[in-house]
Fold each of these.
Amino acid sequence: MFRKPDNYEYFLSLYDKYIEPVAATYAWVLMPNHFHLLVRIKNIDDLHLTGFENLSGVEATKPLHQYFSNLFNAYTKAYNKYYETRGALFERPFKRKLIDNENYLRQVILYIHNNPIHHGFCEHPVEYPWSSYLTCVSIKPTKLHRNEVVGWFDNEANFKTVHNEKLNWNEMDNWLEM
């Protein structure tokens, strides 16, 4: 799915185009063969659907999953054209999970940021460039809802401390499947 840095960057640019208008992003990680996103679909009053006459138009009422479909289709077309391949990159429909409490929310963020460690790409989230962890510990401007994410861990120091702890992946996988 992602063979080189340009692939990751292009996917993120398409993400910004298709998903940012309809969803607030809290955490993400792009891995060579899969990715994880933590988003909250925006309220209708918060939607920034550029290029539409008004929110009562046909485009504004399309199902929100269509924005994700548009992202996946756009990336697949570009990928296949660049690598002279054919077919789908996304084999299964994406999974959605309702997050209904703050503890679960923190666990999902830890899972996302530690996914590169789990798959052997690095030993700490700070070492992996294709995740929102670096954005969370940065002061650079971002569309990521960094202050809220760090706030769910009380402060940046605790955010870093919790991310330094070793995760029990069997327990984490079981817990997240609930």
Note: The first strand starts at residue 23 and ends at 30.
Amino acid sequence: MTIQIQQLGMLVNGEWKKSSDGKTTSILDPSNNQPIAEVERGNKDDARAAVDAARQALQSADWREIDPSKRGRMLYKMANLVRENSDELAKLETLNVGKPLRESKGDVAWAARTFEYFAGLADKIEGETIPVPPKRLNYTLREPLGVTVHIVPWNYPVALASRSVAPALATGNSVIIKPSELTPLTALKLGELLLRAGFPKGIVNVVPGPGSEVGMALCADRQVDGIVFTGSAETGVQVMETAAKNVTPVLLELGGKNPHIVFQDADVPRAIKSVQDGIFTNAGQMCWAGSRAYIHESIYDNFVKELVSRAKTMKLGPGIDESTSMGPLVSKKRQETVLGYVKDGIDEGARLLTGSEKPPAGGLERGNYIQPTIFDDVTPEMKLGSDEIFGPVLSVSKFSTVDEAVAMANNSPYGLYGGVWTSNVKTAHDVASRLQVGVVAVNEYLVTFPQTPFGGYKDSGIGHENGIRSLQYYTRTKNVSVNLA
């Protein structure tokens, strides 16, 4: 597929604008590193303008006094617009990120369901009355948090922007979306659709640009009332440090080094397919990637043999090609980083079972490809065993007892997601209760829904996205006490 190089502006106060310094960024297709768009490159002044617009819109009677059910109707309209434009959104996501088109279609469908889910909650955000000593009425109000900043990563732009923007709008906030400088195309399209859905000017703003400049300027702004960040743990710490100076609350979904535990009574064919999908979907560029697989010793050899065989037969190629099994990594820099981890693993003594290299000559040389890679003999002390690689690299290990498997799985600074494979209900619940992760999937993997909370333990983040629980972050609670005497 060819795409005309588009000139795309940033959305500030309901208008599509150029960067204040006139700079743009070339957006590349990672399958060949050819430009597909020119996007305005925001800076600190543009970030400030977006905050000012969001603050003014938040205080406007057109938004402040709106019937909550009308916010819900706008979000329902947005869900329908996402569905109506799903083909375009999916193609943009694939061309910009590199993932296979079928994955992008799934992401867009998930985004539509998210807007729909929170649309239904918009007029159901309730306070409460509280019993107190006589002659008084005491009650609580749930009010919007205010101006919220949404720093969206490059790996799931359309899904993760929708995940936080939908509840923010449902609860009456104004938002500023800061997409990754690498992958802003679907976030800009979402901004266009939100305008068409009827949200007043300034309620939704989209400012692309470098995180070190635009992102940190937004985090440091005293007019910002909340920051939602998804990305690396290292950058999350910087966001927290910056936000702390203004006592701005943060919602963080950070890294993961996620374990599969496959017991001897598992449905082995399904488990093999899910372990494969759990690491090679989106070329492993996922915070919830299952990058560590612990397999019971009695099934280990055959399990790993089949897994390696499947990895070797995966077809690499542009995501837009429907026959592609795994697309490229998002950038040359990411490709080099992952290859560096592979080299470190070999140098540190891990045993390479398959992969580890760029594909051989065959038309993919210009893209950011890496073969699906599997190691065993990986220890927690190795970089392969401890760091979030964020690429198509899996480490496999064997275990003999439940206690051993749980200890191995929990031996990580991260605690985002985990998979358990067993036909024994007791084992499933026991292990799920002992894993130090925020989400456990039993007999499936890579599963989440707009209505189910998603968040991490340890270095994997603070707070929850998705579900009713997420509304707590996007609202403030005010207590009112009235003396009736």
Note: The CA atoms of residues 345 and 384 lie 6 Å apart.
Amino acid sequence: MSAPIDFYFDFLSPYGYFASTRIDALAAKYGRSVRWRGFYMRGIMQEKLGQTRPFLEVPLKGEYYKHDVARMARWFGLPYKSGGLSNFISANALRAFWLIDDIDREMAKRFAREIFEWHHVRATPPNTPEQVGEAAANAGLAPTRLDLAAAMQQDEAKARLRSETDAAANAGVWGTPTFIVDGEPFWGADRLYLVEDWLRRGGW
């Protein structure tokens, strides 16, 4: 059986949101599964890329980004209303993703889609434990199964996210979304057509 596709994402990224709506169906078309892997993009930007300036304040690039995201939403045919880059700290949601993933991977995917919708469709950044908990409940997590609000603040959850972020960087990930297919990395939601070409050809 062919190896799963690794889908690396941070909830902060609208491009990650766009990709999340397509990657599973694309993989299934070619008999593949997808392993969703949340990581903390701000950590990689600061520690690996040396970028400390807020993204939208970068001359030229910030203005292009705002134009491009709206254009990509139209191209994907998806609703889009951003909660803003500076208004969302994704760490709580990412910790919760891995806590849920340890229980049920499909539930974790549903949770991830909920978080993407909160931030990129409803323009409601899910920063607080209460908001993250509501998203988890919507995904099917029963409070009796996991005290998520408490667990996501524990040292173990924080260390897990750091470990997953380090693993992403070690795999060559420096942006969100990134897909790794048979060891081949593809960065960006607009690279899904190259992912499909790889899957169709069985490599190059």
Note: The CA atoms of residues 103 and 145 lie 9 Å apart.
